[in-house]
# Entry
Amino acid sequence: MSIASDKNLKGIPMKPYDMVREGLIVFTAITVIVLFLAAFWGFPGKNYRPLTIKEVATKAPVAFLKRTLSYFDGSSGLQTYGPPYTHDYQNAQSIGPFCPACWLGVIFPLNAKVDLVMQPLQQIADLNPAVAAALKTYQQASPKQQAAWDKAYGTALGKAKVENGQVVLPATGDYGPVPVLMNGMLTFARAGLLEAALTFNTNPSMAPYETDYTRALFYLGGNIMGTVADHFGEDGGTWGMSHIAGPYPAAWWLWPYTFLYQVPAIGNLNQADLVAFVIWAGSLIVIMLIPFIPGLRRIPYVIPVYKIIWRDWYEKYPSGDPSKSANK
# Structure
């Protein structure tokens, strides 16, 4: 220690402390625990690869078409989500006047129909004359006619069958050019090109170095992600993101946050995300400010864990003051 340290710490009780030894003990203990947990609760041998649009389009074509149609006809929740994607501020999560999303505004503008369906369709049309003709017919039709075609096709999807990999609709129904457009999207997705197109369209000037996969991730949202999450036991009721595709333990450090969603009074709210964040952030701030909050900063004295850690010192000096030895 320096002369200045000796001067500042004069009269303060001191005790030798071997930091290297303590560090080695902690490191060894953690290593043993990690190896034990990995041996008995490690990730399963099967490799669960990331879900892709291609996989969904190949294995669940009807689900893919329903999701695509929801963007195409404007019925998906993304179209009215609010900031940071759309200007529907009335749908922004808020707690009274507290609305962080409103303050930030639309920082990632997204027109789901155009960005997720029409732009890829235009690229498909450049390669497929049938899709080009169908797209032209659809765009030249009145909004009322487009809505009628979309509705008829959506109703038919509920009764569609998959035969030899092809989606077969009921024979009757006025679907207009919509089936051709949707089949074009399905073929495009099965070829593994839709994700690349969505990523490229986000910022063409950055190609081929674009790393913003937001649009591709959006495409699989809703019921598709929900179905996959249910299959792996990763839905909200099973602690969602804190539960990996396998047995516990997983991201246990997220439990204090995800626990809030298991409380019905919070999880059932439309603004559940914001409420959970405010509670979590508020708790974190309180913990950080404990040394400055009257009452809370007395907790270590009320629950004297430090006396257990320094028990040999307090056995010798019960009061903590070395001038008052227990032997006196």
